[in-house]
Amino acid sequence: MPLTRRSVQTAAALAVLGGLLASPAFAQDKPKIALVMKSLANEFFRTMEDGAKAHQKAHASEYTLVANGIKNETDTAAQIKMIEQAVAQKVNAIVLAPADSKALVLAVKAAVDKGILVVNIDNRLDTDALKEKNLTVPFVGPDNRAGAKLVGDYLAKSIKAGDKVGIIEGVSTTFNAQQRTLGFQDAMKAANIKVVGVQSGQWEIEKGNTVAAGMLREHPDLVALLAGNDSMALGAVAAVKAAGKVGKVQVVGYDNINAIKPMLADGRVLATADQYAAKQAVFGIELVQKALAAKTPQAQLPAEVKTEVVLVTKDSK
After folding, report:
1. CA separation for the pair 130, 306 (Å, rounded)
2. What 3-state class would DSSP assign to 245?
3. Residue 107 near residue 274 (C-beta atoms within 8 A)
């Protein structure tokens, strides 16, 4: 079929328009935001990822999301590699739940030096390590110490002064593990309840189970186990059952994951804290969206954005 003068002009015009749209001056690429989480074996972070993906789907015209998480809670090297990959992919911002409060700071600095905005969620990066690198990284999240104290105070009402309890801590180098332990200790001290030991269950079910079992053997008169997250609380519940102490040793946790809800209902777990896993990443994403839109540099971002944490028991609605 012969080309008419009009079809040639149309084709030429389309070619010119296509070239213009592909050029940097006309590129209207949406910001690319990377979400780098801790272990996706933990239901809390799967819920966080689901919440972030749902938010991106509802705001698909505003940004694209690259979500990643490590295989276990202590694989810091893999998380550093994820940040490096995000930098290589030229993301505009990174929302990070660090596996280690100090070890991730160098990787964060490298990203910020490349002009990438970084926001910290879930576990706070070490303040001194950030100062040393002259970095301002906003922490978006709850007061872990206050949340753990809520749980500890509730437990204290069901036991008595002089009773013995054990604390199963998360990864001990993480700020949120330390803060939750301090919150539990605050509550126990106020009620004159004796903490006989603090041991790390590394945020994981099996390790939490091992620590709980050891504490129950070492202290036959233990009346409660305070777990720094619900995964370790699941391990503690299994240890209490194996020791034949159901109804004699209380268990509390932190995070309000779905797996803990039937245990709250039947009393195997007395209480937990909800810091809204599905919203945690979203809070961070929304902060970087605003910063990117306003062209706010990293150094001018707020130091902290507090989010809510609430006590959850079988009577919670």
Report:
1. 19
2. coil
3. no
Chain CA centroid to CA 309, Å: 13
Residue 33: enclosing H or E segment and its boundaries? strand 32-37
Q: How far apart are CA 23 and CA 26, in angstroms?
A: 6
Q: If you write DSSP's letter for every residue of 267-305 in order, what string do you get?
A: TSS-BEEE--HHHHHHHHHHHHHHHHHHT--GGGS-SEE
Chain Cα centroid distance, residue 164? 30
DSSP-assigned letters across all residues of 109-176 = HHHHHTT-EEEEESSPPPHHHHHHTT----EEE--HHHHHHHHHHHHHTTS-TT-EEEEEES-TTSHH
Tens-digit pLDDT string for the chain (317 aa)? 444 544 444 444 344 334 433 333 333 589 999 999 999 999 999 999 999 999 999 999 999 999 999 998 889 999 999 999 999 999 999 999 999 999 999 999 999 999 999 999 999 999 999 999 999 999 999 999 999 999 999 999 999 999 999 999 999 999 999 999 999 999 999 999 999 999 999 999 999 999 999 999 999 999 999 999 999 999 999 999 999 999 999 999 999 999 999 999 999 999 999 999 999 999 999 999 999 999 999 999 999 999 999 999 999 97
CB atoms closer than 10 angstroms to residue 68: 17
The residues near 18 (Cβ < 8 Å, ≥ 6 apart) are none
Query: Under 8 Å CB-to-CB from 15, ≥6 apart: which residues?
Result: none
